[in-house]
Amino acid sequence: MTSVGGPPSDVRGVPWQRARHLAHAAARPLGAVDLPLDLAAGLTLARELVTRTALPAFDTSAMDGFGVAGPGPWRIRGTVRAGTVWTGGPLRPGEAVAISTGACVPPGADSVLPVEVAERAGDLLTGPDPRPGGHIRRLGEDAAAGTVLAPPGTPAGPALLGLAATCGHDTLRVRPRPGVRLLVTGDELVRAGEPGPGRIRDALGPSLPSLVTGLGGEPLSVHEVEDAPGNALAEAVEGAGEAQVIVVTGSTSVGTTDALRRLLHDHEARWIVDTVACRPGHPQLLAELPDGRLLLGLPGNPYAALVAAHTLLAPLLAGLAGRGLPALPMLPLTGEVPVTPGRTRLLPVVWAGAAARVLGGHGAAFLNGAALADALAAVPPGWNREDPVPLIVLR
Ligand SMILES: Nc1nc2c(c(=O)[nH]1)N[C@H]1C(S)=C(S)[C@@H](COP(=O)(O)OP(=O)(O)OC[C@H]3O[C@@H](n4cnc5c(N)ncnc54)[C@H](O)[C@@H]3O)O[C@H]1N2
Ligand code: MOO
Q1: Where does the record place the MoaB/Mog domain (predicted)?
Q2: Rounded to the nearest whole angstrom, what is the distance from the C-alpha of residue 246 to the centroid of ligand 1?
């Protein structure tokens, strides 16, 4: 493919894995903000998570039963419930307290006897000889105070939020979701009902916002942009405002209406990727505008656009959020695997035991396979049938 504006040849026809790395490296992480835990959900840690207290913060009973000192039988001196502290002084050998799971073990108690194995008659307790330390979660046995529990770049998922609360944090320092403005080009597109002759339904306006959200971005708006005449695309790019990323769909190819490459040339954009050696999705592109905004061009064909979003947008948003390049698990493939010489082939797959099975319905304009897929397999050029392939997990 030729392209207007003469991007350097080393960014053209970039190998698929290299394209991912280039997109990730092009992103400078956004500034960090302190947010309450609920608002930090789904964002990315901008600094390490350190526990403020030891975990657990006190010797904790792991069972409902009796805290006992030394071998039995024992005399029960009282009760200690979760949330309270025993104030009756250290237990001496032969003494016990009734204790709840989660309660603070009194000093002197060296194990907890679960209620199921204990026999109580009044304040007399008997039971099997306890294992020293049995059923006690010792102060600091999970982590000492000040331990680093998660590095910067960790997503603030449900477990991390719970962990942060456990550690005594009310807020987290996180990087916000990168804002993404979506510009959908194509005069042939209609937005509702069945399309008439020569017209087709816009498949990308309805699908890209949730895709952006799933990749960690903030979809700001979807604008429909006229192909021609005039400079509607340039105006839309100018007007895209605060967005860190502008995604343009369609207009990536070399037809007379494909204004995007001309626009990048006119704006003296810095090319990062100009076409990727993959199928579909070959014409995708990524460039940095002089004001620092990143502009991503996705091919108009819907499955090609999806593939391209997972190739360039996912690493780009990860980089802006301060995350690492998304990891790609590997599995062998079953089913019919079309290959394209010299190009990575992106194919929809479903989980099939210890392998992934290739689905049909993956023409560049057809989303049927992708709609049913658990993942996209990235089959590299020169692939051997037995080799595991990298997978982009969709669900
Ligand atoms: N001479 C060449 N022509 C084309 C090449 C090429 O290398 N040389 N590459 C082909 C490939 S591969 C693709 S992919 C497309 C990319 O085209 P554009 O990104 O410029 O997109 P359009 O031309 O506007 O549209 C392509 C196709 O997709 C349909 N479309 C567009 N937007 C949407 C949408 N939002 N929802 C559903 N369908 C959409 C559009 O109607 C076209 O059928 O270029 C090839 N051509
Ligand atoms: O590469 Mo196009 O993106 O096949 O349809």
Answers
A1: 181-319
A2: 18
